[in-house]
């Protein structure tokens, strides 16, 4: 399969539309490679070619049939068009049509037609000309971005023009609004997801047709109208009132404020104060019910203050460095309400339009998504063992064994990890010992020691036991690179291990002293208090560390 990519953007390789076109071609190539077919891609960058405007002399019809008298690169372009199986027309929308470079190429295709009149077979327009060359059933795809919030309603003149010279509807289109966002690294999460949809469209196109589901994905807005237009206005760096040029840091702060998600409003206004330490400048962003606003006069009272170099914050926004990792390394400081930082992606994640945003919200709300481990998988066998075996060695051990056997079914939607498997093995082994020896209380107490060793041994690995379960609420494996996440988890895992070491000791001595009634009371109350401490410490430590403190 021969693909001709015509890049009609004056920006050349910096074209935003070109990124979409190449993603589409990547999808075409992937589909062909899967089927064993070869793909050859030839790219024409019009900005680097010489293609003059048509003179309207008609020499290519009578004086030099099929050949233009203008000596430039157009004959080479026509040759490549005739050889292509698929032509991908990539261009930005310029004044509601194609850029002048591409219009010149389209006008200069006149040698590809004969001068003789012909009836149109598609019923479009009034009149046509016979094709000079045999119809090779070349396919065409139009890929374009525009600077409006939506492509809808802005490509009518483009579609009409291509309908005339290609045939009505004889081409596929991928038109995307908000095109300038594709060059902004800070928004790569959203734009990369869209590019994946474009790639999928390419694969489906080769298979026969782009599916309706993919078309809906391509039709979704990257950002809501109001949000995009605020970002677009801020990007010009011109004060609406004075017309004066704004500084880069102010432009950046206004664009960040434009990403504020009003849906995250919790009934209380927040003021985020950004202090760029290297510039000595401070800005305040009011986050309220009706949106966000940047203040330069510092007239508000900050609820959260971030002290950072401007360069660092730009790198964090571009995801060149993890914000959590940078904070853990004390590369910047945060004072005030730390909850804003904990919910940053929600507050500044932008309003995703339509079903995509709803799906994301539903996904985030589901903490029990299939495949995600649950600490309950590990705890249930231990709890059932400690309770049942302490009451009756024989029957209790059988109950405990039954629980171990049923856990994979009961917790089937959760992936079993190493600590789940080790717990099932340990509890099953201890239950068998209790059943054979009849010494339930003693074996139960030994279980506390084994449980303690699980926690303590995990502190010598790259992933402490608690982190293995809770990391999924903090970005998955990426959380393991975040000191603010890892340090408290190491501390808490060690605390739980020490707690169960002491549990083993006091359970033994209370049993020897005949105070067996106190054992279940103490052994149930102490973990409750430890759980309260865990919840408090996991929130307190990151906020304390963010203020520049160290242990």
Structure description:
This protein is α/β, with parallel strands linked by helices. It has helices at residues 16-34, 74-83, 100-107, 156-166, 188-207, 212-219, 225-235, 248-258, 310-317, 323-328, 339-342, 344-347, 354-365, 375-391, 393-410, 418-437, 440-458, 465-470, 483-512, 518-546; strands at residues 2-7, 40-45, 86-92, 113-118, 128-131, 139-145, 172-176, 270-276, 281-288, 291-295, 304-308, 333-336. The strands form three sheets. A five-stranded parallel β-sheet has the order 2-1-3-6-7, with helices on both faces. A five-stranded mixed β-sheet has the order 10-9-8-11-12. Helix 16 packs antiparallel against helix 17 and helix 17 (440-458) runs antiparallel to helix 19. The radius of gyration is 33 Å and the shape is elongated. The two termini are 63 Å apart.
- How would you name the oligomeric state of the polypeptide chains in this document? single chain
**Uncertain spans:** 352-369
Strand count: 12
How far is the first residue's CA from the last residue's CA?
63 Å
SS content category:
alpha/beta
- Averaged pLDDT: 90
Q: Give the strand order of the largest sheet, numbering strands 1, 2, ... along the chain.
A: 2-1-3-6-7
Separate helix tally: 20
The shape is elongated
Radius of gyration: 33 Å
Percent of residues in helices: 40-55%
Largest sheet: 5 strands, parallel
% residues in beta strands:
5-15%
